[in-house]
Amino acid sequence: MSNISGLHTAATGLKTAQTRMDTAAHNISNVGTDGYTRQRVETAALSPQQTVNGPVGRGVEVTDIGRLRDAFLDERVRTTGAGAEQATAHADVLERAERVMGEPDDGITEAMATLWDAFEDLANDPSEPATREQVLGALDDVARRFNTADRDLDALAEDVTRQIREHVDEVNGLTAQIAEVNEQIDQTGAGRAYPDLADRRDHLVDELSELIGARVADTDDGSHRVTVGGLTLVEGSRVNALEAEEDGSIEHQASGQEVPAGGRLGGLQAALGHEDDEGYASLHALRNGLDGLADEVADQLNGQHEQGYTVGDGESDPSQGDDLLQGAGADADNGGAAGLAVAAGLAVAEGLQPSDIAAAKGEEGGPQDGRNAQALADLRDAPFTTDNGEENSEESESGGETIDRQLRELVGGLASSVSGQRRTADNQASQAAIADEARRGEHGVSIDEEMVDLMTHQRAFEAASRVTSTIDEALDVLINRTGVVGR
Amino acid sequence: MRVTQDSLVQSTLNRLQTRLNEHQDVSTKVSTGKAWQVPSDDPARANQSLVLRADEHARTQQQRNAQDAESRLEITDSTLQSMNDRLHRARDLAVQAAKGTSDESERTAIADEIDEIREELKSLANTRHAGKALFAGYTDGPAVAFSPEDPEDDDELEVAFKGDDGHQIDRKIGPNETVRSNVTAAEVFAADLDDLDDGELNAENTFSMLHDLAVDVRAGDVDKVSDAIGDIDDAQDRLQSAQSSVGVAHSRVLSALDRSERDLLAVQKERSDVEDVNLAEAIMELQTQEVAFESTLGSMARVLQPSLMDFIR
């Protein structure tokens, strides 16, 4: 064994301690970096040198600078995070839809209640022009509230579609970045740059997962693959772009298949819904419900109005009541999409004059006959039936429900679906927060820990330096002080 | 579980956010006075509130209807009372004339007064209330018209009525209660409604009877005048039966008004229970939230502050 090898051994210690301090410094510097994983220097003793006295150690070497990353935690964060984003995006849109409806103070229910009152006032005083004007005003208000609600829901749907488009662009941007990082990692191979690149890639995948519910899939050949619902978005440096369609669906361009998106995009898609949706969980469903209701309002009011007669004056004879309300789709009973424009186009019948309101029941009714006006007001409590009972409760489209009740069903249904969705979102978000906290705890930098490490490595460095100087001193004695007897 | 600066900060921030959210919820309740802001805050109560609002609207309207019916019926009742007084006077005059002791000038005076009473009854029957003919049913009036308008002794008085017993002006005064708020001149004055033909009546009615009576008084026909007293009694009976049906309707309206007042109050109270916040409770909750929020801030300051750096040199 030579003293020179001892110097070398001490040098490996110095170098390792330095690397460790560098890494601690790197960790501490990145304490606030989002998505950073703390790094640790892995070391191993160098293989011993064979001497006549047996094997003697040759020091230490750095085998790896690795990330302390837990892939299961990643998976958990991504799954819960995507779920939370999806439910939250859905709930947010529905909440906005609820505000658009303006219930209970400024919604359609209030306008309908005012209309019923106006009919009853007309019944009390049918010869007074002011009560007729009041009915016209109330009818107009009802129609306008339907128009406004429909228009605002449409604008909301438009906004959601735009968001979907923008998010799909974001997804394409992210997948391109992931592919780029993959390429860099391939080129770099294992080394100093590797953990930070891997962090960057994981962070990008996190974002992608929040947006569209993407997952990292295992591959046989070890390449990095990101998928959504079985469709590959990125594999190695190859990217499959997505494209948002007009109706809010997303197309996987390579395969032409529709992407079953999760995450925020999935939530937005669910909130938008499909054109023939029913219920209260999507904008399309709400608009369909609103259209059905507008149709029903027009049907019941017009139907009852036709049972009555106007009062003739000197110039005109009493005539049967005409339509009170008209809608763009009201006369398109033959088409499947007949109801679609009803809420948007609902309006007081064109040219309807106060004197056209058929308040009287009989042809000979006279100006003080308000029986049909009362019958119109009674629609508040009972659904419309014709005189011969033709459209009775079983056969009518409304299923024998009053307008008010159907309106309440819409408002209540929307309220339940909003509160249900909000509860789901809150649940998911708290689960996601727990997962995220756990991952931050596991992956994040602890300053205390790094300080302790730093001090340990400082001492190691000092000790290795001392070893060097000790050997140096020994050599000094050997070289400069030995064999100088009698000099 | 490993705890790092990052996870500590994040979890503290999350908790702070939760506290702030709860604090905001309660303070919104206190400042708006509403237990829920949008239906989705409490779908069940929101639905209840919509039902109660509709009910409140309907009941308020029914109250208005009842008030309208009340004023109509009151005027009708007092008008009928005046008619009754007039008929009573006519009967007294007929009794006086039937004694046969009056001379011609007295008979003329009695006949003139009876003519006068007939005219008064006509104008009472054509009473208008707020611009509407009270006794003309669905029509715009006049309820009673004479032809000729000012009959001579040898004229036959024909009377045209507008509106008959089919012209019922109903008012909805309760959820399932309607009341008739009018009576027509035909019902009050015509002897037999079946004789009404398109509003024209030639047969027996109070006006023609009074006209004939005046003619008979002037002529001094004591027998006919005595017979007429029975006819006046019949006319009074008709009037009184109209009066009593109006009275019954009036008392129904009054009790409905009374009831609807109470019901409306109950509905309003229920709606307030469903919609409004219990202020004392909410303010207590707000204070609790404030304390919790401040404690969270305090613990945050303690937890995030120290690190090993503070203790090593």
Topology:
The complex is a heterodimer of chains A (487) and B (313).
Chain A (H helix, E strand, L loop, with lengths): L2 H27 L9 E7 L3 E3 L2 E3 L3 E8 L3 H31 L6 H17 L4 H60 L5 H19 L2 E3 L7 E4 L2 E5 L2 E2 L2 E3 L5 E3 L4 E2 L4 H10 L10 H24 L18 E2 L15 H4 L1 E2 L22 H8 L24 H41 L3 H35 L6
Antiparallel strand pairs in A: 1-4, 2-3, 5-6, 6-7, 7-8, 9-10, 10-11, 12-13
Helix pairs in contact in A: 1-11, 2-4, 2-5, 2-6, 2-10, 3-4, 3-9, 4-5, 4-6, 4-7, 5-6, 7-10
Chain B lengths: L4 H28 L10 H56 L5 H22 L2 E2 L2 E2 L10 E4 L10 E4 L8 E5 L2 E4 L4 H5 L10 E2 L4 H14 L2 H54 L3 H26 L9
Kindly describe this structure.
- The complex is a heterodimer of chains A (487) and B (313).
- Chain A has helices spanning 3-29, 71-101, 108-124, 129-188, 194-212, 263-272, 283-306, 342-345, 371-378, 403-443, 447-481, and strands at residues 39-45, 49-51, 54-56, 60-67, 215-217, 225-228, 231-235, 238-239, 242-244, 250-252, 257-258, 325-326, 347-348.
- Chain A is built from 11 helices and 13 strands.
- Chain A folds into 3 domains: 3-68 and 445-481; 73-95 and 157-275, no CATH class; 116-150 and 280-417, no CATH class.
- By secondary structure, chain A is an alpha+beta fold.
- In chain A, the strands form 5 sheets. Chain A has a 4-stranded antiparallel beta sheet.
- In chain A, 57% of the residues lie in helices and 10% in strands.
- With 313 residues, chain B is mostly helical.
- Chain B contains 7 helices and 7 strands, in the order αααββββββαβααα.
- Chain B has a 3-stranded antiparallel beta sheet with strand order 3-4-7. Chain B has a two-stranded antiparallel sheet with strand order 1-2.
- Chain B is rod-shaped.
- In chain B, 36% of the residues are buried.
- Chains A and B meet through helix 2, helix 3, helix 9, helix 10 and helix 11 of A and helix 1, helix 2, strand 2 and strand 5 of B.
